[in-house]
Specification:
By secondary structure, the chain is mainly α. The protein folds into 2 domains: 2-45; 74-283, MetI-like fold, CATH 1.10.3720.10. 75% of the residues lie in helices and 0% in strands. The chain has helices at 2-45, 49-54, 67-74, 78-109, 115-124, 134-144, 150-175, 178-186, 191-202, 204-220, 223-228, 237-240, 252-283.
């Protein structure tokens, strides 16, 4: 009997190893498919126009044009665009996450009559097509003197990212034990201090998740910046790429170099916050 059990156990172990092997192979294939576009873009950035059209997409350039990166940074005004992107994206992400945390805390942890109505109004924002508001926002910013000003972009990003950010935060906030707040109140903690010293640190994983989601959208957004900003000193990277596209020609190597520079902050943020992102996504899905 023991011999039969050992045989069955060995067979299960073999099947488990085979299953894990297939799973690892599948994950490697998926990872390769995801990485290939980045490899292609990097090789693209090291080519001149002739190599871009004459060589296969993943072919190594005969003479890597590292000067493309120097050109876009020194002659293409990319340094200014990069700084503008950092300022606009960082300000909008900080404002969105902070306001969304305030709203979610008030809706989920406080008892007041209109909390469901307020939540419904924010969720309605998810159903509004973003670019259908271009003309009303253009007129609004024109009337209040915010056209061609970074504040118009920051306010727009914040307004449109709030509903989704609140929706993500809701699931996590509902899992926070009430005992934390009760103990804080018994110790004489005010509402504001309780939020910043207890609730906000506890929600750090889901805050990181919402921050990276907002960052990706804000960093890559094009239409609002192209509509509201006309001055070179306020343009962001996504709009600045157009400088390398002329009426009759385009510097494709410079465009590729700009795109590589533009994705580096997103990749860096994702690598740094990856554990928090996974934790934030999963923690709010199960109530405990």
């Amino acid at each position: 009997m023991s011999q039969q059990n050992s045989i069955v156990g060995a067979e299960k172990g073999i099947r488990k190893k085979i299953t894990h092997g297939f799973l690892y192979i599948l994950l490697i294939i998926i990872a390769a498919v995801q990485i290939l576009p980045l490899v292609w873009l990097f090789l693209f950035s090291l080519k001149d126009n002739q190599e871009v059209f004459n060589l296969p997409p993943l072919a190594l350039p005969q003479d890597p044009k590292w000067g493309n990166y120097v050109t876009v940074w020194t002659e293409g005004n990319i340094g200014v665009y990069f700084l503008n992107s950092v300022i606009v994206t960082g300000s909008a992400v900080l404002l969105t996450v902070l306001l969304a945390s305030f709203v979610t805390f008030a809706i989920t942890r406080m008892n007041w009559k209109l909390n469901k109505l307020v939540l419904g109004l924010f969720m309605v924002g998810l159903m509004i097509p973003v670019h259908s508001t271009l003309i009303p926002l253009f007129n609004f910013y024109l009337n209040i003197g915010l056209m061609n000003h970074p504040l118009s972009i920051i306010l727009t990003y914040t307004a449109f990212n709030l509903p989704l950010t609140i929706m993500i935060l809701l699931g996590f906030y509902y899992t926070i034990p009430r005992e934390l707040e009760e103990a804080a109140i018994m110790d004489g903690c005010s509402v504001h201090r309780m939020f910043f010293r207890i609730i906000l640190p506890v929600t750090a994983p889901v805050v990181a998740t919402t921050a990276i989601i907002n960052m990706i959208y804000n960093w890559n957004e094009f239409v609002f910046v192209n509509t509201f900003i006309s001055s070179d000193k306020y343009k962001t990277l996504t709009v600045g790429i157009q400088n390398f596209i002329g009426q009759y020609s385009a510097d494709w190597g410079a465009i590729g170099s700009t795109l590589v520079i533009s994705i580096l902050p997103i990749l860096l943020a994702f690598v740094v916050l990856s554990n928090s992102i996974v934790e934030g996504i999963t923690s709010g899905s199960v109530k405990g």
